[in-house]
Amino acid sequence: MGAAASSARGGRGGEGTVLGDLPENCVAEVLLRLDPLEICRMARLSRTFRGAASGDGVWESKLPRNYARLLAVAAAGDGGERQAAAAAAAELEAEPLPKKEVYARLCRRNRFDGGKKEFWLDKGGGGVCMSISSMALSITGIDDRRYWNFIPNDESRFRTVAYLSQIWWFEVRGEVEFCFPEGTYSLFYRVHLGRPFKRLGRRVYSSEHIHGWDIKPVRFQMSTSDGQHAQSKSYLTDPGVWINHHAGDFVVKDSNKPTKIRFAMIQIDCTHTKGGLCVDSVVVKPQYLTQKKAPRCYV
């Protein structure tokens, strides 16, 4: 029993092979078949596993093909990809980063376009996710405080949401151009019926202005620069919770070619007013993440 326990811990309590005896390249072959979170857990087993789990070959296989371009956008920050891509690329060539560190950097919140948009890698699967602030959207009537206001909200990634009191013509449009890695993506509008706030430390919401959304559905539209189109309709229900309304899916086949996406959320039936709605952001996620949850997700 003592020898067996010692062997399981990687020690030399007796004869036989232990984890520390495995060649690092063999361990690396095993890690190549695991996802990033599993690799990090396996690194705790022994020094050999820890060394293999830090290898460039293991982590490069988990990075998107165009990770150098994504890293350039992250390095440029709010300055934009075009202005700093060349400088970032030169920096990478002069002092290459370990691929594990590259992966960690891309998993952080990387803002661009004046801080109104951000992307990050999903830690578990390595897919690119994106969030676009309401401040980056084109909203009909946003300049008239009788209709819309930007209000602070700590439930938003950007700490600010667009709040609609009342309007006849509801139209929220936007676009983004980005070098997404190959794959299938889903696009959502993140909205909330009612104005959320805190009272005595508890989360509550005001239903004062909620009206009009049960009369006609809202239309969601999406199109891409390579000719893909999608649309859907949905009544806005369930006040008091954030809901991701699915606008559509698109496929990226070339990660080195920017894909421009245009999207819209519209309810322009002028027979009635509508109001009491928070628009937080537009979210883009790899489809494998959205399939883990119901199409309408509460977050």
UniProtKB/TrEMBL annotation:
The record ties this protein, via Gene3D superfamilies, to: 1.20.1280.50
Q: Which domain of life is it from?
A: Eukaryota
Q: Which InterPro entries match?
A: F-box-like_dom_sf, F-box_dom, PP2-like
Cite the F-box domain residue spans from the record. 16-62
CDD domains named in the record: F-box_AtSKIP3-like
Identify this protein by name. F-box domain-containing protein
Biological source species = Urochloa decumbens
